[in-house]
Fold:
Amino acid sequence: MNRQSPHTDSFHDLLITSLRDPEKAQAYLKVALEEYQEDGDAQVFLLALRNVAEAKGGLGELAKQSHLNRQSLYQTLSSKGNPRLMTLGKILKVLGFHLSIESEHAT
Structure:
């Protein structure tokens, strides 16, 4: 039986609670996206999206508001997920965010 320790459960609960704050959720997603851009592994960003979705009512609520199939959404945000740009845009919009492009170099 693979059981998480109470400390892990507590951390997850604290994380989800903190992600209910839009500014904290934005910072969390931004760091996760930066990690993806550095190492090319989307797993951290997809986990961050799942956590923010959980903080905002869960994947069922996200599926309902985004008009995306719930099962498809679970697969999209899984560790092996590879969301299309349109799907990512819908997910971010429901979560209260949008895609943007910034220069890597200060002007």
User: Anything to note?
Assistant: The CA atoms of residues 37 and 45 lie 10 Å apart. DSSP finds six helices and no strands in the chain.
